[in-house]
Amino acid sequence: MIDDNFDKMAEVYDDMIDWDARLQRELPFIVEELQGAERIIEFACSTGRHTLALAEWFAVTGVDINQKMIERAKEVTKPKSDKIELIHSNLLDIEPDKLGTFDGGIILANSLVNLETEENIIKALKLMRKLITAGKLIGQTVCLDNSIPTFLYDRQKLESDSIWCKGL
């Protein structure tokens, strides 16, 4: 994935989404599923809207491949900057030893699909598993039929690398 593709999008991303409606729809599910977590990670945090909202409940680390998205996220998340860390990095290049571990995480808005190959997606999921040592990983991807399934990976309940789907 080429992060330059998102340079222009960073300028208009927040205008493309009704954030009040989206957060009202998604936050109850995310917060409930991550209940009990203290420290979570948001993969592909874009402009930090979920990051900021989730900082009401958790310490949040946001990671994004695009520098302009991270710069915008720093502006957006200023009100809760004491509970938020933002990192410019390709998801596939994250070094778990440097970040530590998390109690849960999210990856939303087709970010997995942007990894382009099945090999990259599998690599990313394995990396996420190393970072999230307890709790859940919540992901979202939009299917061709316009439904929005959410996958939920729960290390505490599952013995295998299963993915559960749930509608938002």
* Corresponding CATH architecture: 3-Layer(aba) Sandwich
User: What is the CATH homology-level superfamily?
Assistant: Vaccinia Virus protein VP39
Number of domains: 1
The proportion of residues in beta strands is 15-25%
Q: How many DSSP helices?
A: 6
Oligomeric composition of the shown chains: single chain
Structural class: alpha/beta
CATH class division: Alpha Beta
User: What is the N-to-C order of secondary-structure elements (H for helix, E for strand)?
Assistant: HHEHEHEHEHEEE
In this structure, how is the largest beta sheet organized? Answer: 7 strands, mixed
Tell me the total number of β-strands. 7
Poorly predicted tracts of residues: 144-168
What is the strand arrangement across the widest sheet?
3-2-1-4-5-6-7
What name is given to the CATH topology?
Rossmann fold
The first-to-last residue Cα distance is 27 Å
What portion of residues is helical? 25-40%
- Cα gyration radius (Å): 15 Å
Mean pLDDT: 80
Using the alpha-carbon principal axes, give the shape.
globular
